[in-house]
Write a structure and sequence with these properties.
The chain is α+β, with helices and mostly antiparallel strands. It has one domain. The chain is built from 3 helices and 3 strands.
Amino acid sequence: MTYKTRLFPWCIIRPQPNMTQTIVARFRRRCDAESHLQLLRQLLPNAPHTIMFDIAPDSRDEDSESSEVS
């Protein structure tokens, strides 16, 4: 996860038929994501969209934890 991605953890996602997700937009605040979601629902009423908080562990953190355990 890049630094820029960490600055915008709130995402609007659109589920795809093959069980994948497409990130439509990223936001710093949940209220911004909710406002954008309302607009999307007005413009595309038949398309499903969901708000998600996207936080992934940093790979460096995982590596340091595994080395401490060993």
